[in-house]
Amino acid sequence: MKQLWDSRFTKAVNKEVIDFTSSIHLDKRLYKYDIQGSIAHVRMLDKCKIINSRDATRIINGLKLILREIQTKKIKFYTFDEDIHMAIEKRLINKIGSAGEKLHTARSRNDQVSLDMRLYLRDEIISLLKLIKNLQKVIIELAQKYINIIIPGFTHLQHGQPVALSHHLMAYYFMLKRDCERMNECLTRVNVLPLGAGALAGTELPIDRRYVAKLLGFQRVSANSIDTVSDRDFVIEFLGIASILAMHLSRLSEELILWSSEEFSFIELDDAFCTGSSIMPQKKNPDVAELIRAKTGQVYGNLMAMLTVMKGLPLSYNRDMQEDKKCLFDTVDITGAVLRILPNLLKSLKVNKDHISQVIKSGFLAATDVSNYLVIKGVPFRQAHGITGGIVKYCLKTNRRIEELSLGELKKFSGKFSSDIFQKLKMENCVANKQSLGGTSPKELVNVIKKEKKEQGF
Ligand code: ARG
Asked: For this structure, is 348 an active site residue?
């Protein structure tokens, strides 16, 4: 099979080599961006008088026709097409003849592939940002709905202090906010024009890179042609950000799994978002959450794969870099799929209010409040901590809760206790009193939620 680059070869390339080196099965996905980039390139070649306007028009019309043919599935791709760049160029030449042979003037596949990837990733990041925002909206809605539900807050998965369920949910909102910040920052580095770097050295032809950047909406033009064709940082950075996002969503999934278990029973997942067991008739499994948790592994894997692909490469372009597509597309697909299903899963869950109100009675959740009660009464913190520890020990021995002790019993531990301690021990008050900035009091939460809704335009 004849290739566009094989004039210096004395033999046809081995069939196995064609199969092994071809990336068309993956990068055909970039066709829209490849054509968009080529049209901008040709406009520039025309404007700079590197090719004549008649040829430019022929090429642009040919490319538009090819775009429609791909969209309507009239074009099939074959392994010997090698990659999407070759496939489109070959078809263009077949269609319009010698004008088509001018498309690749002042360009190499090395800068072209980076262009396609950047155009693609720019769009995908914008779509993912919208999906994250939608998830944040669902979380904020749940946080508003459950502002008065108090759950045990955990450290080491042991009861720590009472918190508003809303506060716990909002923790995920803020993780996602940082994920969006990172994605937006990454976007500024993706949004740089690589075209014009040529194979690696730039070109002697009088091109206008700024014009191409303007046509394609790039904020900047890359500054070093060697770096430009060697750089896959923008892919790795995205894979890293997606990995952190996946980690956050995996933690949320883990909590949904844990909280819907018999042991916790804090929530119930909707039947529509669970599956059953083929053998145990009573089972209702949180598979969606489990698979979100599991897919995190693949997302991390893609990051590791790309870091490893790049780590030993001498400058500038090496064919190794072709492997970036598999990693990037896979992570984009997984992230999109997870972000599409998770909001629906969250929206459909039910909170077992009554059960939670029983659970918060155990585990001495107000112990820290007792210490701070003593601190406010002038007891040094370390002493207050020791006194409260003694009370907990006493309760464990006598099998009681702190609020079940009499004032007389409490006074044996410290003379500073008076009857107002019993108000402090109420869970509602423990939560309401945490009015420090960023604390769990509903008053503070209402402010935070209001501010965030305004900022996001929810
Ligand atoms: N398919 C290649 C890739 O994805 C395009 C660039 C190939 N360049 C080359 N000189 N072989 O990286």
From this structure: no
